[in-house]
Design a protein that fits this description.
Shape: extended
Number of strands: 0
Structural class: mainly alpha
Length: 66
């Protein structure tokens, strides 16, 4: 499947699997996001990776700091 087909065939998922994703795949996904175009090349995004059962507490702490 090429990039255009991937975008055209995307769908929203609300039931998430608990399978672990390899570090390499996460890094590839983040790198693609990092390279995405942004208005005036401002690149206003931040990435946070949370991988364990403490994720909800960690996310709350991060959001409080921003």
């Amino acid at each position: 499947m090429n990039t255009i087909e991937s975008i055209e065939n995307r769908r929203s998922i609300r039931n998430f699997k608990t399978n672990k994703i390899s570090k390499e795949i996460v890094e590839d996904i983040l790198n693609c996001g990092r390279l995405a175009p942004s208005a005036k090349n401002r690149q206003p995004w931040y990435f946070v990776i949370v991988q364990d059962e403490m994720k909800n507490k960690q996310v709350v702490l991060i959001l409080q700091q921003t």
